[in-house]
Amino acid sequence: MILQSLCQFYRSGCIEFAPFGFEEKPVPFLIVINDAGEFVSIEDTRQTVGKRKISQTFQVPQAVKKTSGISANLLWDVAEYVLGLDFKENPEKTHKQFSAFRTRLEPFCEDDEVQAVHCFLAGLNLLCLQKNEHWQEIVDTNCLLSFKLEGRDHLVCQSGTFLDLYRQSLENHSESTFLPCLVTGDITTPVLLHPAIKKLPGAQSSGANIVSFNLPAFTSWSKKQGHNAPTSQHAAFEYTTALNYLLQPDNEHSIQVGNRTFLFWSETAKSLQSVFKSFFVESTDSETNAVDEAYDIAFQSQDCCAEDRFNVLGLAPNNARISVCLWHRIRPDELLNNLSIWFEDLAMKGLEKFGRSSLERLLRCTCLQFKTKYLSDKLTVNVLESMLKGSRLPHSLMVAVLNRIRADEGKVSYTRASLLKAFINRKYRHEGKNNMQLTTALDEENNQTGYVLGRLFSVFERLQEEAHRSNLSTTISSRYFGGASIRPQSVFNTLFKLHIHHLRKLQNPGRVVNFRQMIGDLMQKIGNIPSHLSSEQQCLFAVGYYHQRQAFYSSNKEPEIDDEDDHEFE
Fold first, then answer.
1. pLDDT tens digits along 300-348
2. 144-149 and 76-78 strand pairing
3. What is the 3-class SS of 418-435, one letter each residue?
4. Other CB atoms closer than 10 Å to residue 447's CB: what's the count?
5. Could you tell me which residues are beta bridge partners of residue 263?
6. Percent of the chain's residues with pLDDT above 90
7. Distance from chain centroid for Cα 19
8. Which of 99, 119, 356, 532 is the 20 to 30 Å CA partner of 541?
9. 3-state helix, strand, coil in the chain (%, to 5)
């Protein structure tokens, strides 16, 4: 289904992909020769953009798969293949590479332009090229080179006669094996080695594969390599071309969280596709909330149809191979509904100030020093999957948030409280306990023990703050939050003793009455304080603490300042 969806994306026509057997390649320098195969000049195709020089992209014959052996591309390649330059002090191998490049031209010498290139290489005189101003850059970088005839506006590999010969060669198969293609179902000659997938972060730079068999243990019925998962040459070309396009870092189809790369595409829902990335990646623009803007655009657009499907593919690098860690195919309207539920579950007091949070921002709040290098890849995939499917959040997310709150001395931020609320609400929804779901702001009707104890803890903290008007180096929260949320009985006994001392220090008698009433009302809800709280009740404790603390600041018309949400992430 993954390969079929990628092939369908290639054929949809929404992107102008290279035709079968070709690919787009940036070539910085062109060797210009005349019809007799004599060197004329070296043409620089690069344009300066900012401080960088960007090479012009040309449509060239598809690259061969290079392994440890010698394989030359057709009419384009790096300088050591094209000109036989020895960069690795291995003249014998360099000579073979140069010979392989020339040998590939021979079946196409019927074309006059290819014949000129063949003549040029046969009588190659590097002394002429060394006088050119671009020679030193070619030697220093071993860059890609191709050929162009003087006075022509196309590369030699784009001439009409050559293209006809090249397309004919693509249809000629030396293989005699015919098997049904797993993608199209057609009886065809399966490709042995699939084209490489490049630019996946973490994978080797020469490319990696989703479909590959490099050990006998992976094969069956004595079949060779790609015959174990027969895929036609057209299908293999289409899905790898689509994947390589989706992996381009400057397009709107890919996001990276930790060591995982997620690709998404749709055939018709253009508006959703164009803003989908904003739901995951943290915006660098502090003036606007990209998630809120993306949310409005996605839900106001009407460009999706019932037959369309939105695809999300998660990839993990593994040297020469690629692991699929997530695959989700869904109708756009279902996806929008799940996204709506996701943000509704996350909604928390402070939404007006902080806005909706991206997935990256949410996951960072579970990491040490907010750095994603400490983020679990498995946790990332599980949370994203829950977001897309509307399913329960993983238990490990709740544990990660609670551990981070305790490690940060009771720091229950907006994003952490949002995640815990979403975890609880999704859990209750799937258990049929919709009437127990947590609200956005303080819920005085919620009598669950953890929630009430969290509120009570917040009251004690507020009492301490009003009793000691000066800034305290150690507060009740920083000292007792972890213990109070796990073993409340032992900690609250201490807090009850402390609160008497704090009440005596209050100068406003009215506040004394207010605090005593609040503490008394909360104690009536729970009766005896339990000796310990379950992990679910610890979640409720943190949310109740956050709700009550924000309620204390409601008179200021704004939520409490949240240091974490103002934190500049690395």
1. 776 666 678 889 999 998 878 899 999 998 888 888 899 999 999 999 9
2. antiparallel
3. HHHHHHHHHHHHHCCCHH
4. 12
5. 254, 313
6. 42
7. 28
8. 356
9. 50, 15, 40
Non-local CB neighbours of 30 within 8 Å, separated by 6+ positions: 42, 43, 45, 145, 146, 147, 148, 155
Confidence (pTM):
0.82
N- to C-terminal Cα distance for the chain?
37
Q: For the CA atoms of 175, 180, 184, 189, what is the dihedral angle to 10 degrees?
A: 0
Closest CA to 124 of 92, 91, 83, 86: 83
Residue-wise pLDDT tens digits, 436-474 = 999 999 999 999 999 999 999 999 999 998 888 766 778
In whole angstroms, give the CA distance from residue 546 to residue 569: 23
The sheet carrying 310-318 orders its strands as: 254-257, 260-266, 310-318, 321-330
* Structure-block tokens of residue 452: 């009430």
Strand, helix or coil for residue 170: helix
Report the distance separating Cα 36 and Cα 113, nearest Å: 9
């704004």: which residue's tokens?
Answer: 558
**Residue type (1 letter), 290:** A
Could you give the CA distance from residue 68 to residue 203 in angstroms, rounded to a whole number?
17
Q: Which residue has the tokens 């009771």?
A: 410
Q: How far is CA 158 from CA 113, 152, 165, 236, 390, in A?
A: 10, 11, 11, 23, 50
Q: Which residues contact 83 (CB under 8 A, 6 or more apart)?
A: 98, 124, 126, 129, 138, 145
Note the helical H segments in 90-197: 91-105, 112-122, 126-130, 135-141, 160-171
State the Cα angle at 526 between 492 and 495, rounded to 5°: 15
DSSP state of 472: P
In sequence order, the β-bridge partners of residue 323 are 316
User: E strand or H helix at 52, and its extent?
Assistant: strand 52-54
Beta bridge partners of 209: 321
Show the DSSP H helices in 160-308 as ranges.
160-171, 233-246, 270-275, 290-300
Q: How far apart are CA 313 and CA 385, in angstroms?
A: 11
